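Example 3.2
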Amino acid sequence: MSSSDEENVAYDQRVEKGTVSEDEEEWPFWKLAVIALPQLGVMVLWIFLGPNTTSYLISLGATDSFATLNNSAGPVVGFIVGPIVGTWSDQSTSKWGRRRPVIVAGFLSTLVAGLLYSGAKQIMGEGNGAMYLAASMQWVLDFTINAMQTPFRALVADLASSKQQLPMQIFFAIVCAVGCFIAFTIMKIYDVAIHHMFELMSIVLLVNCACVGAALLVAKEKQYVRSGKQEASVCGPIAGMGGAFKGMPKAFYILLFVQAMVWMGNTVWGTYGKVWFTTSVYPGDAEAPDAAIAHKEYVEGAAAFASAGQMGSIFNLVLSFGFMGLGYTKIPSNYIYSPCIFIGAAVCFLCAFVVQHSHGLAVFCFVLSNVCLTAAGSIPYGIVAVWNRQAEERGQVGSVAMQMAILNCCITVGQQLCTMILGGFEGAVDVVEAVKYLYIVSMVANTLGGLGSLLLNVGTTDKKKMVSTDSSTESSESDCPSTD
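Structure, written as tokens:
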């Protein structure tokens, strides 16, 4: 065994005993960075799929309403899958570790679902069969991607020391920025991406294969052994979900509200930003004849959206390094998070009332929206990781995967609210006005989220009220039949 392997095993043993301190040996940063790479692949998936799912289904013959309603797949599935997979991962006693089996299973199922989704027309031919296959596989994809990504951050949190927690969770934002750039670059390969979905999805899946493979080569987990008071039970996952809330400070519940509000605003860009560019800023139509002005406007709008996304990804990367540096300071995390959310509110105001057909200003707003997006994708997870590491160092049983899954649930709440509100507006006005009203609602949501984040008081949370899920989980499981 090499010296580095011996150090990793020793560290793993101390993690199991809950005795890791900030002065002890740590996993090298480069290893933790490689283990975080699968998030890059998932980000490529989400950013590529988000702006294209609706128009892709329409191109296969779906009605506008059917294609829009099918976007509920992500929020609905994510809300259900995340907590269940998070609890299962936290409690797993697999000899391969708690996180890696879930990641592998999620990746393999995503690979199959992605090929069926993107190749629906090639498999079923012209007609409703292709549309229904793609629509159903969109739900399956949302299930498999959510299952795959749930353990990513938890795996890094398991291996990182206390002082590495917040910087490493912020490093995920760096990984996401690179993933965003790759996704927007892939979108620019063809003028109309939805007409070449199979080719582009194949590239996206290859990126995921490389990222997951690299992480699995580096990550090492020891088999998780439950403490004497913990037992597997039929009600284990349910008890785990309840236990993740027990003992958390009040700031945790405020953080859940903030996440829902912030991601309602972020979803405007992630799912409907391309719609805004190609209908409001550039009045276009993807299905118009090639020689038509509407088709030309759509192509220019889609290209502007992808270019803005690339610039935003570079800006996202710069912001991520900045946030990671701030993570090593004594500045309370909520004081870093709150201004970023207010910037998101300001961007929504500009899009609703100022931009109109200004191409340059639209690109500027898209790039600036990355301030809120980057912060929301990193800081809350770092906060939760720090809370859990502090609990583990006191000998308590943490539920980091479960709590991060709950944060992801709040993201899905914001996403679903965004979709439902837009659908309601579209029933009364045209898509241009509907998107404008959605920006107004998102501006209000971000403002509420920014105000809520000021109340987190992360730096002064009473440690006695930190995570303590061991006793709560024990009492919850005592009434459940044992499976041993």
